[in-house]
Design brief:
Elements lengths: L1 E6 L12 E6 L5 H14 L2 H5 L3 E5 L19 H13 L4 E6 L6 H7 L2 H5 L7 E5 L5 E7 L17 E6 L18 H8 L4 E4 L2 E5 L3 E3 L1 H4 L6 H6 L5 H11 L4 E13 L3 E5 L3 E5 L2 H12 L7 H8 L11 E3 L1 H11 L16 E4 L8 H13 L11 E4 L6 H6 L5 E4 L11 E3 L6 H10 L14 H16 L9
Parallel strand pairs: 1-6, 2-14, 3-4, 3-8, 4-5, 8-11, 9-11, 15-16, 16-17, 17-18
Antiparallel strand pairs: 2-13, 6-7, 9-10, 11-12, 11-13
Helix pairs in contact: 1-3, 4-16, 9-11
The protein binds iron/sulfur cluster.
The site of iron/sulfur cluster has 13 residues, from loops.
Length: 482
């Protein structure tokens, strides 16, 4: 695999475009209206010239792959907004547009197919737009030297030698990449082989997130890397990884879907919040700062944003950001507040016995377990959880209480709690793979069918896996080169 090394001690100071964020008021997902407004925005900000005759990637978020449009209107990047953005780009002269996302519950292609994205895109005439399944593109291994994570090497939450991320080669084929023997590959050769994304547009859905507190443009980059990488860093180092990931290639433009946002137990059990706007800008941290203001959240309390500020990627200071249409922002803010953020208190769920160490990670075991339990709690299946015991984090349980635990309904979740593994079903991992955990809980935990499983369309699922395996093994992936 190709390699790319980033020495964090010798980083060039990032060049940050002016911190300007535009609020576009938009009440409904009306494609024609959005196209008109986006065109105005692009022309007024000279973005039409930047994308002209360029290969553009739209990094969307299809995190919850279901066929029910309204179930995910507050979770996924809206399909009408994606169609409208692609149409805008085509009309303004982009050479090629790729709609890109990575794997979630199945291969990336599963989400596209089950959401029936094609149907939504067909509302407009698109001739230069294609899908880009990020789990099928050639990758490069990006290694961070002297990263902020180095101090954690060897600690229990970070059992790796260094921070490495698997990253789509087409986004960095203009950089100094080396082959496995360390020989530098010429730029021209790289571009010829892997293609190059000239212009990268991030399209996050504004929403609360049980693991990282919020999902905005910086967090949206998580979908660029494979699921295994995401899981590997899904513990107390998640924010550090997200910040490092952003530095590999920050987006050129952000179009945040905040027409219907997601609040509460996001991502999967978010509630809709009609914030009725699209929030655009060229600096991810600035757009995320304005989005945070809309939600009444201090951006300095979001670790990945704070790290990026410290590294020179933006001020996170609303007073230094030029906000166009600030009146609209204030109106929407007044309308939606209080914006609800995730509740991770597993210990407050009635009829459960919970032993939880204070250090159990919000981004890891605590967040993941609560998300799985929310699937039952928010879908009228709370009674299926009754009388279960959960153990997670570094916790000390008195001997007499241990003896009373019913091992058949006890789940010991994550490596931190391994010392109690003989007291129930032990889920290994830091954190355990949530898909595997979900499946095991239904049987080992006798919790019955997880309501999320009912959304899976078996035929689409099997077919997506078959074509995905075919694409990887037999090399008939469509986007060997973008
Ligand atoms: S096992 Fe879980 S609680 Fe422990 S460090 Fe890993 S993610 Fe955090």
């Amino acid at each position: 695999m190709l390699k790319y090394e980033i020495d964090c001690d010798n980083l060039e100071k990032p060049v940050i475009a002016e911190e300007k964020v535009t609020i576009i008021e938009q009440k409904e997902y009306n494609v024609e209206e959005i196209v008109e407004k986006l065109k105005n925005y692009f022309v007024n900000n000279h973005i039409d010239k930047e994308i002209h005759d360029k290969t553009v990637m739209l990094k969307v978020s299809l995190v919850f792959a279901v066929g029910d449009y309204n179930r995910v209107i507050m979770i996924n990047t809206n399909y009408n907004l994606i169609a409208a953005t692609a149409k805008t780009l085509e009309d303004l002269g982009a050479k090629r547009i790729y709609i890109a996302d990575g794997a979630t519950v199945g291969p990336a292609s599963y989400a596209y197919s089950v959401a029936n994205l094609k149907r939504w895109l067909n509302q407009v005439e698109l001739k230069k737009t294609k899908y880009l399944f990020l789990d099928e593109v050639p990758y490069a291994k990006v290694k961070f030297k002297n990263s902020p994570l180095d101090e954690m090497v060897g600690k229990e939450c970070y059992p790796f030698k260094d921070l490495t991320l698997t990253y789509p080669a087409c986004l960095i084929s203009n950089k100094s990449l080396t082959d496995k023997n360390g020989n530098r590959i010429e730029d021209e050769k790289l571009r010829k082989k892997f293609g190059y994304i000239d212009y990268f547009i991030s399209m996050p859905k504004l929403k609360a997130n049980i693991f990282a507190n919020i999902t905005l443009s910086v967090k949206n980059n998580m979908g660029l890397i494979p699921r295994a990488d995401r899981l590997r860093y899904h513990s107390r180092i998640l924010h550090d990884m997200i910040a490092c990931l952003y530095t590999i290639r920050p987006p050129d433009l952000i179009i945040t879907d905040a027409i219907v946002s997601g609040m509460g137990q996001g991502p999967m059990e978010a509630d809709p919040c009609r914030s009725e706007c699209i929030i655009c800008g060229k600096v991810g941290t600035a757009v995320d700062t304005v989005c945070s203001y809309l939600m009444d959240h201090d951006p300095l309390k979001i670790r990945h944003l704070k790290l990026l500020k410290n590294w020179g990627y933006g001020s996170l200071d609303l007073s230094q950001i030029e906000v166009i249409n600030k009146v609209v922002l204030e109106q929407k803010r007044d309308k939606i507040l209080p914006f609800e953020f995730p509740d991770r208190h597993i210990e407050k769920i009635p009829n459960l016995k919970v032993y939880i160490g204070e250090d159990a990670c919000d981004s890891g075991c605590r967040g993941m377990l609560k998300a799985i339990l929310d699937a039952y709690l928010k879908n009228d299946k709370a009674e299926l959880l009754d009388n279960h015991t959960f153990i997670l984090g570094n916790v000390d349980i008195p001997k007499e209480e241990l003896e009373e635990i019913d091992k058949r309904s006890c789940i010991v979740y994550g490596d931190c709690a391994e010392k109690y593994k003989e007291y129930g079903a032990f889920y290994h991992g830091c954190p355990p793979d949530y898909l595997v955990a979900m499946a095991l809980m239904m049987f080992q935990g006798h919790m019955g069918i997880n309501p999320w499983i009912t959304y899976i369309k078996p035929l689409h699922y099997v077919w997506s896996w078959l074509r995905h395996i075919g694409a990887l093994v037999f090399g008939f992936r469509l986007w060997r080169k973008v």
